[in-house]
């Protein structure tokens, strides 16, 4: 299964901490997400999670390798994953790219600042503040989101 690819049009140094942007355009609405990363591999995690969703798999196994139960937050996907999976199914335009390097000590603060800026300038809310969900909720949440776009 071929999943979208992220790009680096601004030539951001991925060896240093950075912020990234995910923009999904449905033709009717634009969804935006801002994230932070210390490593380049963070960008690939989204594609892996979308592939799991499309295969109907949970984000992680219910138990860890040592047999302990997984925390609820480790079992749940973020809302941005739902919209990315739908974007893949619906052939919506996905742009996923690093936007700026940030000093590690300022990463959280700058992320919040950019989220606030983006959410106040875009027509639709960003995806950062949405609920998390489990794979069993995929169909219901997908239908709800698609109906909201009509």
In short:
This protein has 150 residues and is of the alpha+beta class. It has helices at 41-54, 72-75, 79-90, 107-121, 138-149, and strands at 18-25, 30-37, 93-101.
Pick out the low-confidence regions: none
Task: Count the DSSP helices.
Answer: 5
Q: Beta fraction of the residues?
A: 15-25%
Number of strands: 3
Helix content: 25-40%
Q: Can you tell me the overall shape?
A: globular
Give the termini separation: 28 Å
Radius of gyration: 16 Å
Largest sheet: 3 strands, antiparallel
Mean pLDDT: 91
Main-sheet strand order equals 2-1-3
Structural class: alpha+beta
SSE string, helices as H and strands as E? EEHHHEHH
Characterise this structure.
- By secondary structure, this protein is an alpha+beta fold.
- 38% of the residues lie in helices and 17% in strands.
- Strands 2-1-3 form a 3-stranded antiparallel beta sheet, with helices on both faces.
- A hairpin with a 4-residue loop joins strand 1 and strand 2.
- Helix 1 packs across helix 3.
- The longest helix has 15 residues.
Features:
alpha+beta; globular; 150 residues; 5 helices
SSE topology sketch:
Elements: E1 18-25, E2 30-37, H1 41-54, H2 72-75, H3 79-90, E3 93-101, H4 107-121, H5 138-149
Antiparallel strand pairs: 1-2, 1-3
């Amino acid at each position: 299964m071929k999943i979208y690819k992220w790009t680096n049009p601004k030539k951001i140094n991925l060896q240093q901490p950075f912020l990234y942007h995910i923009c999904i355009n449905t033709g009717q609405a634009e969804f935006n997400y801002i994230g932070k990363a210390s490593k380049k591999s963070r960008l690939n995690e989204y594609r892996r999670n979308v592939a799991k969703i499309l295969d109907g798999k949970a984000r992680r196994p219910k138990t860890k390798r040592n047999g302990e139960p997984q925390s609820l937050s480790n079992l749940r996907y973020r809302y941005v994953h739902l919209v990315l999976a739908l974007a893949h199914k619906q052939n919506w335009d996905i742009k996923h790219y690093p936007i700026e390097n940030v000093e590690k000590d300022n990463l959280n603060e700058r992320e919040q600042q950019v989220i606030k800026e983006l959410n106040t300038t875009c027509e639709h809310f960003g995806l950062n503040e949405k609920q998390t969900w489990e794979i069993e909720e995929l169909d219901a949440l997908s239908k709800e989101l698609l109906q909201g776009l009509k």
